[in-house]
Structure formats: C-alpha cells, structure tokens
Write a sequence for this structure.
C-alpha cells in the first residue's frame, strides 16, 4: 500500500494528543482511521501468507501504528492511546468477520465480510471461540467493566500490563489483578462450552 501522507500522520498525531487529554470526540474520530488501516493491513498480510496461517493481531496493531504515526513525534502516552483504540478496532474486525462467517455457514452461502479477501483462514472452532469470548466479555462488562477492558487490550491488542496501565491511568499491579480476576471468570464461562479454548491468549 502507499505510505500514509504526512498530513494524515500529523492529523492522527493531533488526535492522539487530544485523546490523551480525555477528548471523547478525538477518540471517536480515531477509531475509523485505525479500523480502516487494520483492514488494509489484514488484506495485504493475507495475500502474502499461506491459507493455513492465522492472523497475528498483535503484529497488525503495531504495524498499523508504524504506518499511521511518525513514532519519534508522538509521546509514549499517546502511543498507548493508539494501541487502546487499535485493540478495540481489532476486536470489532475479528467479531464482524466471525459473525459473517457463522451467518454464511447457516445460510449455505459465501462469506461476505469486510475482510472476506484479507482475513486469516479461521476454522469453525476458532470462529466459535471468538464469538463465545465476545459474548462473555459483554456479560463481564456488566459487573466488571475494568476487567473486560483489560481483556480487550491484552487479548485483542497484545498490550503488556505496563502498557494497559498507561492507557487506563492506573498501576501495573492493578492491571495484573484485574486481568487475573477477569481471566478466571472467563475460563469458568468458556470451559464447558468450548473444550479447546485454553489454547487462546487468555492463558497469558
């Protein structure tokens, strides 16, 4: 793909600065920019890999950052905000694809999803795992919003405990506790429905 124009990079940098100050409008404007870039990267990555490769979401998030922002011009806390937005975008991309894949299977037709030509090849079991996790996250969010947020950043964005702490304005110790609690709850929720789910990143 063509490099992102400098003006676009500067706009994204500006949005990240505003987002770091708690500007909700900036965060809302960031999301579609990151979402579209991740989709383009996934299409490009998919064409270059064998059909049996799975999508490395962490690598995509980091690559999207490098393509969208001039790293030496952005402060750390703003990079953290980018990764937070990208984590949520990656979740939406993967779930959109999984939902379309399941609907196509039930209807007997082809998959028509935003990343139909670019998403990694998922097995039916992987699709079921993604959708079950997403549904469980929504249930978790109802009574433990902090834990659900940490899972999104860790699982879909690949952020470390320290990076999540920067995003959420808390300590790494608090993030580790939230991750441990949320992960234990999700394990109990998913163990019976998805016997093979332990292979997921929730073990980390």
């Amino acid at each position: 793909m063509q490099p992102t124009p400098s003006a676009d990079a500067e706009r994204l940098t500006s949005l990240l600065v505003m987002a770091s100050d708690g500007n909700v409008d900036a965060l809302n404007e960031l999301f579609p920019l990151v979402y579209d870039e991740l989709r383009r990267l996934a299409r490009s990555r998919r064409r270059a890999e064998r059909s049996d490769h799975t999508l490395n979401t962490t690598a995509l998030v980091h690559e999207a950052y490098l393509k969208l922002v001039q790293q030496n011009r952005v402060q750390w806390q703003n990079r953290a905000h980018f990764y937070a937005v990208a984590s949520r975008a990656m979740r939406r991309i993967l779930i959109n694809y999984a939902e379309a894949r399941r609907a196509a299977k039930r209807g007997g037709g082809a998959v028509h999803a935003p990343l139909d030509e670019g998403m990694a090849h998922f097995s039916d079991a992987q699709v079921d795992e993604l959708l079950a996790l997403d549904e469980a996250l929504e249930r978790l969010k109802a009574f433990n919003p902090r834990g659900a947020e940490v899972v999104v950043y860790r699982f879909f964005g690949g952020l470390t405990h320290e990076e999540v702490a920067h995003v959420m304005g808390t300590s790494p110790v608090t993030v580790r506790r939230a991750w441990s609690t949320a992960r234990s709850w999700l394990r109990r929720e998913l163990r019976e429905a998805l016997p093979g789910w332990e292979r997921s990143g929730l073990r980390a």
Observations:
- The two ends are 33 Å apart (CA to CA).
- DSSP finds eight helices and no strands in the chain.
